[in-house]
Structure prediction request, 155 residues.
Amino acid sequence: MHFRKAMSELKKYIVDSARQFKGEITNAGPEALQGGVGAYATQHVLIYGTSMDGGVLFDASGNSCFYTSTCQRIGLGLGIEWGGVGSAAVSSDHLTPGITEVHGPYIDFVPGSGLSGGILYNSTTFSGGKGALAEGAMIGAGYQFCSIEVHACSN
Prediction:
């Protein structure tokens, strides 16, 4: 009984998130787009895991910054993975130094080589997504809480 209710809530959350994502992308101008590339590593044991990545962010206005990100993950999973990561985001602000807290669902499927990804939100709106080409051995899914520190910006 509880499992069906949980699955129903998860389905509703995913559908609502997809609708919100579509609205954010539709209403954003090209100056609001941001992207990034970097390297990352993740480990997960049963119901808890951590993820760390770092690299370079850039926006459509020509700004670029270094960043580091750490995530605490809650969900079912087991394994370790590492690889290259890419990100895309929609923001009304240009890149500036500071710390941003985001959260959202993630999924990992890496049987030797595979994919990892997640959708990130700031307090209430869509913030962006991350995807990775990974090596290792990992399977898992759940919800993550991340802190992204942006520093050393140039334009």
Notes: The helical segments are 2-27.
